[in-house]
Design a protein that fits this description.
The chain is built from two helices and twelve strands. By secondary structure, it is mainly β.
């Protein structure tokens, strides 16, 4: 599944004055957690995409890690209908019909089948536009060298679940159109995953069968069924 990939602050109550400081700090944090300006931009983006029955997008996918000294850029495309999606990145194709997930490796002619887990902790492409509504704090980013904040709203989503493998998702939203231009996932291991949309086409013709892997098209494919 695509990983399109939360800061909890805890303080110990040691003394009376520490308790007061803790209370005041949390009041400030709660105010930031639902930044009205950020929420307005997120809501506008979400409402815009709700009007689309389906869409298709071409994008670039970048993975980088300073620690591992890697930087890899690939091209990809995605088709979405409701919460179903079909994703292509390089030699990998992922089909998700919200019941089953097929991950096909074209070079190896191998497909792995798993049950779809809505609570698996991964971010699906269909969730990017609404994920902020549950389990996230959100605020405008002040340190956004990768986006022109004069033209874009740059918003950081901080998940409240500390057990996730990422600690932040940065969304770049066009100020005028409210189109989502990119999202960047910050993993705890130092890796960064950036998805930048190159072309977006709403309301395409999409059939339910488009989101199911058709084994008949690959008669010699190796099937690994993990369901």
């Amino acid at each position: 599944m695509v990983k399109i990939y939360p800061i909890k602050i805890s303080m110990r109550k040691l003394f009376f004055f520490s308790i007061i400081a803790f209370f005041l700090a949390n009041q400030c944090l709660l105010a930031q957690a639902k930044d009205p300006k950020a929420e307005s931009s997120l809501n506008a983006m979400s409402e815009r995409y709700k009007t689309f029955k389906s869409f298709q997008a071409d994008f670039t996918y970048t993975i980088e890690s300073a620690q591992e000294k890697i930087r890899d850029v690939q091209e990809g495309s995605i088709m979405v209908k409701g919460e179903k999606f079909k994703l292509k990145i390089g030699e990998q194709e992922i089909y998700n019909n919200m019941n089953t997930v097929w991950t096909f490796l074209k070079g190896e002619n191998e497909v792995t089948i798993t049950d779809y887990d809505p609570d698996g902790g991964d971010i699906t492409p269909a969730e990017v536009y609404t994920m902020y509504k549950k389990g996230f704090k959100y605020l405008f980013a002040d340190d956004a060298p990768d986006a022109d904040t004069r033209l874009n709203d740059v918003i950081d989503l901080i998940p409240e679940d500390k057990n996730l493998n990422y600690f932040k998702v940065r969304l770049v939203i066009d100020k005028k159109t409210k189109d989502l231009k990119s999202w960047k996932i910050f993993e705890k291991n130092g890796r960064r995953f950036l998805y930048s949309i190159v072309k977006f086409v709403p309301n395409i013709t999409a059939k339910d069968t488009d989101f199911t892997f058709d084994k008949a098209k690959y008669p010699k494919v190796t099937v690994i069924d993990l369901r």
